[in-house]
Write a structure and sequence with these properties.
With 175 residues, the chain is mainly alpha-helical. The protein is 65% helix and 3% strand. It contains six helices and two strands, in the order H-H-H-H-E-H-H-E. A two-stranded antiparallel sheet has the order 1-2.
């Protein structure tokens, strides 16, 4: 009787272990792909994770069905995974963009000494909240405040420096 019970328990335990080991390699591959995609968030790793997930799901769905011959199935799986892996992990080619020959225009609000005066004026009148705004509302208020301060600075600067105007935009030629 003890032999029969131990044989019955052995069959149950071995059945569960054989069922798990059939897709265990795919499960391990999936876990390693997920860990890799957590470390680097590139498109290739995400595609690789999706591919391994599909293979694992196919294994789970087909685990009750017996393959015709195990050696043929392994060879087919090796070929498909290696070909797909090469395609998925192939690095993207980046091409140099051709630069146009048009000049670049750099426009600033103020130039030279006027720029330094503006920075001194702005820093003196800037509210402490606007150093690092934490919300979009506050950021919008800071932009409005900057524009108002700019108008005030214009008036102030024109009164102190009559007859001076800002130079035109700087042009840089690509040669």
């Amino acid at each position: 009787m003890k032999k029969l019970i131990t044989l019955f328990i052995f069959l149950i335990v071995s059945n569960q272990t054989f069922g798990k080991s059939k897709c265990q390699d795919e499960w391990n591959d999936l876990k390693s792909a997920q860990a890799l995609s957590r470390q680097s968030s590139s498109e290739a790793t995400r595609n690789w994770e999706k591919h391994v997930f599909k293979i694992y799901n196919a294994c789970i769905k087909n685990k009750n069905k017996e393959p015709v011959s195990k050696s043929v199935e392994k060879q087919v799986n090796k070929k498909t995974t290696s070909n797909k892996t090469k395609k998925l992990l192939k690095p993207k080619k980046y091409y140099k963009r051709e630069l146009s020959n048009q000049p670049i225009e750099m426009k600033a609000r103020y130039y030279d000494g006027r720029q330094n005066d503006w920075l001194k004026y702005y820093r003196a009148h800037k509210s402490p909240q606007c150093k690092k705004p934490k919300s979009t509302k506050l950021f919008a208020k800071c932009i409005e405040e900057r524009d108002k301060l700019s108008i005030e600075f214009e008036r102030h600067w024109r009164m102190e420096n009559p007859g001076k105007q800002a130079p035109p935009a700087i042009k840089l030629d690509r040669g």
